[in-house]
Amino acid sequence: MAADADDPVYYVISDLHIGGDEQLGEVDFLEELLDFLERLATTEEDAELVINGDAFGLWEFTEVDGPAKFDVLTERYPELFEQLRETGESIPITLLPGNHDNELAAYDEYAERLAAYNVDLVRAESITRPVGERTIYFEHGHQRDPNNRFEDFGNPYETPMGYYYNTNVTSRAGRLSERGRFNWLKDVQAVTPTERVPRWLLSKYFYREMNPLLRYAAIPILLLLNISVLLAVLAGLDVAGVWTMPVETVDAALARLGLVGEAVHFLLVVNAAIAGVLVLAGVPLYFVLRDVGKTVDRFGVFETDLTVDPDEPYAAAARELFAERPETAVFCYGHTHRPLLKEVGDGVLVNTGTWLKRLHRRNVVAGVLPPVFYPSYQLCAVRIAAESDGVAVEFEQIEKADPSADEITRTERLLTLGRAPTPTLPDRTVVGDADLEPTSEADE
Fold first, then answer.
1. Which CATH number describes the domain made up of 9-191+306-438?
2. What confidence tens digit (pLDDT) does each residue in 233-251 have?
């Protein structure tokens, strides 16, 4: 396949989630987004920008309805819409709705008002684009997620389970976030998968909201709790005459440390006593909770997982699409917020990631302290273009300052040994030519 100088080049972004109640209205990447759009406005390429779903967080608006949400968006972010208008004068901008902005497909007014800013709203769940002799398939990805798919896409009154999570959890977090000691609750939208929300809340309470005196008093106890449980068990065996603890040896070793040894001895004694109580109470409690879990399973109260498998449903859909339409080179989606680029059959599967903050869990070095969630950004655009040897797909990283300097405390860094995440974007891939002729029965 020979690349033509006039072949179009596609830049793809998704999952901006701009908008929402109260603190969700903050756009941490607005400056970077404006710079990216300004750069596209001056490109000499025959380019098109595809915004592949969830450009706006319309689900997160709970105090206004319908197209009135668009009024809020244009009032809050006038510079963004003016830059869209300017960029759209130079290159086509195509917007595909996602689940969070599904209602864009429900009202003619959205299409008309976006057109005024040179944005072409496609009121469908998927589109295709030519690239050389091949094609690209775009969808947001909620179609593969049982908690966010629509039977009647574009129906503003259809509310999958994800809608209730966003209106009752995410939006409420946006309204309450400023009440905390630090403005962190709004980041609940960055917690994926959603099963991690309880642990994230516990982590933020402990490291941010808890009274500092209580936190610093609890840290040595929780840090040494594993050792204390062992000591409590050994003490129980000593009392039962099964095993004799080398108490004198331990005391002699600690005595040589002076005041430090005395402090450690005191902490270990207190911890062992606490651990003993916890063990005595925890054993029967474990069996009670286990029985409750079995009862819940029998009644089928929770029949659906909260999250979709991050890759496999899309890989399966891509394999099926490539088999049915061998001219398709790229299956491009978003939704799960995880940048991905991998070969599937005769094509590639691409996830465009998110411009939202991402959180990475790090366990503490010891004890039973809550995990730490390090923040990061992976702002990027996927560039897809025809080349002489096939269709090239690559991530273009957009630099943004590391947020952990302001959001991770010294205590969190110390307890995790500073193991901050170093997320990377996938490497460039070229999809080579494929046999575009349908296979005949004689050839099978």
1. 3.60.21.10
2. 666 666 676 666 565 565 6
